[in-house]
Amino acid sequence: MLRSVGACVFAAALLLLSKSAFRLALGEFRDTEPGSLLFGALQLVIGISAVVAAIGLVKRARWAPPSVAIWGVSTAALLAIQPLFEPMDPGAPIGE
Known about the structure:
Layout: H1 2-30, H2 36-59, H3 64-85
Helix pairs in contact: 1-2, 2-3
């Protein structure tokens, strides 16, 4: 029982995250900045894999763990490449 409740809570969180990812993907595809297409594609992969993972978790499918892994890897890739396109100013004050 507890395992299915946890899966449903995780699936609900993934659905919320997918909503945000789809919204950000549309914004990135409209943007003309360098790297926007890459960010938009990664956001699209994040959103799709989150929805697929949520469905798999609720259904307790065997393909749910790989889809969660795809979601995690694509999220980590987005976080890893973001500083390459949007570098922080080294002289910026911290915490303000």
